[in-house]
Amino acid sequence: MEKQKTAVIVGVSSQDGSYLAELLLEKGYKVVGSIRRSTAMVHENIEHLKGKIILEAADLIDQESLNRVMIKYQPDEVYNIAAQSVPGDAWSHPFYTGEVTALGPVRVFEAVRHFAPHAKVYQATSREILGGVKGVDRANESTPLFANNPYGIAKAYAHMMINCYRESYGMFVCGGILFNHESPRRSLHFVTRKISMGVACIKLGIQNPPVNELGEPMVDAQGRIHLGDLNAMRDWGYSKDYVEAMWLMLQQEKPKDYVIGTDTNYSIKDACKAAFDHVGMNWEDHVMSNERLLRPTEITDMRGDYSLAKKELGWEPKVFMKELMEIMVDADIEWLKSHNVK
Ligand code: NDP
């Protein structure tokens, strides 16, 4: 009988970490998930997994905590999903973003190098490392790095370290250059979830909606959702599809970086239309662009050309923007009802 594999997911409470944990459990792994220590210890995305996975406290700014996990579990695979992951917050917290999102992965690589050197490592890279590239419609693994915001620059540093650890120490480290991916577990800081939660609140006539990252109700007193640049374009896929690509990368003989996207591009307006259409309402009556939510620099329009992943991993996206928005709106309607939000 084959020995049970052990995987460590750093940042298991994240959208991706929680779906990845489910996938690895299905595949028979022993799953160790790291969470940041907190007093509340409430992690909505993984409440249903408690008892099925092992939880350990570790922080990307605490080398010792990462070392301890590697020493204790000697994992076969390590997935670093954790980051200060909100590009919008990176302008107001550039130092913290650098500490966590740029240096944090290097701490994971060091912990593996010293204490679990046989482990294969996945690092969550982002399409934001290509943020400002001009004149490229479809990005692939050869597109030159050109990050243009503090989050993207932090991710670009970590991305370059992947190759450094491969070349310098012969480590098996893969970078997933992932385009935007969403789900009902996406945090309320992100535009797709602002739309889906806003639509759900408006549809149900909620009087006390959840609050956004500015601490303001997600739907204002006039029944409007506040967003940034409505013309910004994104390649949106489904988180549940994307975690399969992460796992596949670590099943290969050689470590490599892969672009993961849907090769489609839609505007924020398109996403609003898909979500409001789903509940039979007109998006233009309920959405406004709020200057305070504009990014100081936007990323350029680009689609994720996933042909290498298709060829070598046999991976393809299954869910595209319209269906994704419908899944999210339905889930938020259910969430509001089950949490008795009025
Ligand atoms: P989330 O925003 O859902 O989660 C981020 C995770 O990082 C949370 O588990 C959070 O813990 C954890 N975290 C934050 N700071 C620290 C720290 N100092 N130490 C340890 N853990 C920490 O992420 P997603 O699932 O959306 O994304 C997963 C990864 O992929 C991230 O690295 C993100 O930057 C990257 N990415 C995401 C894309 C997307 O569209 N979703 C696109 C491309 C890349 P806590 O629960 O305690 O806050």
UniProtKB/TrEMBL annotation:
<feature type="domain" description="NAD(P)-binding">
    <location>
        <begin position="9"/>
        <end position="328"/>
    </location>
</feature>
<dbReference type="Pfam" id="PF16363">
    <property type="entry name" value="GDP_Man_Dehyd"/>
</dbReference>
<keyword id="KW-0456">Lyase</keyword>
<protein>
    <recommendedName>
        <fullName>GDP-mannose 4,6-dehydratase</fullName>
        <ecNumber>4.2.1.47</ecNumber>
    </recommendedName>
</protein>
<dbReference type="GO" id="GO:0042351">
    <property type="term" value="P:'de novo' GDP-L-fucose biosynthetic process"/>
</dbReference>
<dbReference type="InterPro" id="IPR016040">
    <property type="entry name" value="NAD(P)-bd_dom"/>
</dbReference>
<comment type="similarity">
    <text>Belongs to the NAD(P)-dependent epimerase/dehydratase family. GDP-mannose 4,6-dehydratase subfamily.</text>
</comment>
<dbReference type="InterPro" id="IPR006368">
    <property type="entry name" value="GDP_Man_deHydtase"/>
</dbReference>
<dbReference type="GO" id="GO:0008446">
    <property type="term" value="F:GDP-mannose 4,6-dehydratase activity"/>
</dbReference>
<comment type="function">
    <text>Catalyzes the conversion of GDP-D-mannose to GDP-4-dehydro-6-deoxy-D-mannose.</text>
</comment>
<dbReference type="InterPro" id="IPR036291">
    <property type="entry name" value="NAD(P)-bd_dom_sf"/>
</dbReference>
